[in-house]
Description:
The chain is of the alpha/beta class. The chain has a single domain, classed as Alpha-Beta Barrel (TIM Barrel), CATH 3.20.20. It is built from nine helices and 13 strands. The chain has helices at about 45-60, 80-90, 110-115, 130-145, 165-180, 200-205, 225-240, 265-280, 330-335, and strands spanning about 10, 20, 25-30, 60-65, 70, 75, 95-100, 120-125, 150-155, 185-190, 210, 250, 285-290. The strands form three sheets. Strands 4-7-8-9-10-11-12-13 form an eight-stranded parallel beta sheet, with helices on both faces. Strands 1-2-3 form a three-stranded antiparallel beta sheet. β9, α5 and β10 form a beta-alpha-beta unit.
Amino acid sequence: xxxxxxxxxxxxTTGAAALVVCGSALAQSEPRMPGHPVCRGSPAAQPALxxxxxxLAQARFVTYQPTSLTVMNGRVAPSxxxxxxxxxxxxRQRFDGLITYDAIHGNEALPALAAALKFRALIIGVWDPLxxxxxxxxxxxxxxxxxxxxxxSLGNELLFSRRMxxxxxxxxxxxxxxxxxxxPLSTTEPFHLFYDAAQSELLGQLDFLLVNVHPVFxxxxxxxxDATAAQFVVNVLAELAARSCGPILVKETGMPTAPAEAGFSxxxxxxxxxxxxxxxxPTSLHAFAYFAAFDAPWRAFDALAAPxxxxxxxxxxxxxxxxxxxxxxxxAARELPALPER
Length: 342
């Protein structure tokens, strides 16, 4: 989920010109991929894509993994339906859009539970697009709940973690489109990978773009204020707009609430989201999701939780949630107005 990026990247500014950071030096924005990818989406997905546009403008999204699910070094201890029901009951007070990472390991129960609680939109993640069991579960959910499931994401940071190639991922998306032509399809990567001209074919296969934009992993972060961090996210979306075949949803952005010695706190998390809401109000073309729903203590010790990170314990990875592991809301969640019942 969280990614470490130390390349030259678009730096946040409050002016019109984006900058890049190379070590400590600033320079004008480097040349980007010219033109627009050749979009190969399915006409049959247009009604669902229209619902996604509507959801981006009107829903409040959060990324979700069940509190009862744990992963250690790739070994999954699955969730259960009663725990998912309790999770969603808490989230539904403030959120009506969900983005998941996995379609199995207990998540098979999630679409029906989300529908019963009247969530507006669900984007289902498929952790491994080459695993037929995972694909079949996602396909079944999309077919059973076509008004709820507004899209599928094939993988999370597959290219960044080198678990797939861009060519292989584009082919997997094309194969799934043949099986599920009426559902919008996407994948999720750190934003800088979509700047590469080599990703044009992959971008052309995506009906909408899911992207991870983490200011906390930029080399300038600890010297920047929260307004600068939020503006960085806005600048990245401006860069990506010409490269996307559909709307853009920032799937991961946020701030951990601990450890304090690293400069993280619940107050700073809330401050970042206040700044981001001001600078990036949702529209039918772009929005952001809150990352993540709940703290996950296991993530601090999971070697696979932060692709590209140095080996060892990463305590910040346990504290991305807007709620703690006991489902208690932190300040950032408490500042969100409750949503009316649908």
